[in-house]
Amino acid sequence: MSEPIRFYFRGETHQVDGLPNTRTVLQHLREDLHCTGTKEGCAEGDCGACTVVVGELRGNELELKTVNSCIQFVPTLDGKALFTVEDLKQRDGCLHPAQQAMVECHGSQCGFCTPGFVMSLWGLYLRHEQDGVTPSKREIDDALSGNLCRCTGYRPIIDAARRMGELPKVEFDREAIKAALRSIDQQQPLALTHAGQTFHAPRTLAQLAQLRADLPQARILAGSTDVGLWVTKHMRDLGDIIYIGQVEEIRHIVRQDDWLEIGAGVTLEKAYAALTGQYPDELSEMWQRFASLPVRNAGTLGGNVANGSPIRCRG
Ligand SMILES: Cc1cc2nc3c(=O)[nH]c(=O)nc-3n(C[C@H](O)[C@H](O)[C@H](O)COP(=O)(O)OP(=O)(O)OC[C@H]3O[C@@H](n4cnc5c(N)ncnc54)[C@H](O)[C@@H]3O)c2cc1C
Ligand code: FES
Ligand code: FES
Question: In this structure, which topology does domain 91-169 adopt according to CATH?
Fold first, then answer.
């Protein structure tokens, strides 16, 4: 029998059992849990209406990043934390500065895109909550690069990105989330079976190699920024899946004097940050033109090479 998928959600460990392996996080939120704050616009990673923040324990650090919930599958959340726009309201009922600033700067009209923008703003807020640095215009543009708005226009939203740092600080309790994630950490790799198809999430390279040998036809899943669309747009049946996002050995970046080693499972955002450190003039503009921050936060370098997407870069 399959173990349930377990992740931190709304202050507790959320357990999920019996879902199709490719149920998206957005479908689960809206249709199974009736948490409808997170919106669906395009279901292909373009519009950002579905933006959520995913937290993951890496060693002793809590890594928090914005991703597009419409193209992420629920089993990839196993052992992680999921935050949506509903999590931002404070205990006393006040809005979070990311929300309050949107109100004060008139950053919303029809409101459809607003939860996604707010989550991207929250991601930016979290990045600077400890260092207190005011984000630059370029950093704000980048944080919002995955969010489209058809009616408000972007200037008030950019104003809100600046304004939120001036409002009374709200601290995010990272230690509590870390403790919660430690308590749900599963040593056993996730192995699900649904309708005769399996979903495996190996934790070590040896487990991955063994699964590859046992299931040579299985689909490798990394950041899901392309594979997700095969399901939401092409309605493809993926068959058995091996998710490699939990294999720590392929998520390393090693720097030496004259070389750089980037594991296949390193996210595009981290890989490009490492590469632009070496070649700032040649690569920094290209990096920012690649998709959007939530896509780069999920997509991996190995997935990009294997995928050979004809998109190349936006703009
Ligand atoms: C809105 C949007 C914009 C995008 N813009 C760009 C762009 O500007 N440029 C661009 O190049 N791409 C773009 N993409 C496509 C995609 O984001 C990238 O190609 C990304 O790098 C895919 O990586 P992934 O980890 O998400 O791969 P996945 O979607 O998980 O997998 C993609 C393919 O690679 C295989 N694979 C994954 N990892 C490995 C591995 N380690 N070993 C062997 N096979 C593997 C999978 O089996 C699958 O066939 C965009 C996608 C979206 C949704
Ligand atoms: S619904 Fe448009 S990016 Fe997810
Ligand atoms: S406020 Fe209407 S789409 Fe942004």
Answer: DNA polymerase; domain 1 (1.10.150)
Q: Which two tokens stand for residue 79?
A: 């052992």
Measured from the alpha carbon of residue 308, the closest ligand is 1
Query: What pLDDT was estimated at residue 277?
Result: 80
Cβ atoms of 192 and 78 closer than 8 Å: no
Task: Ligand 1, residue 44: give the atom nearest the CA.
Answer: 53
Rounded Cα distance between 149 and 107, Å, is 10
Q: Which ligand is nearest to the CA of 52?
A: 2
Q: What is the pLDDT of residues 159-204, one digit of tens each?
A: 999 999 999 999 999 999 999 999 997 778 999 999 999 999 999 9
Q: Is the pTM of this model over 0.85?
A: yes
In this structure, whether the domain defined by 249-307 belongs to CATH 3.40.630.10 is answered with: no
pLDDT in tens, 281-292: 778 888 888 999
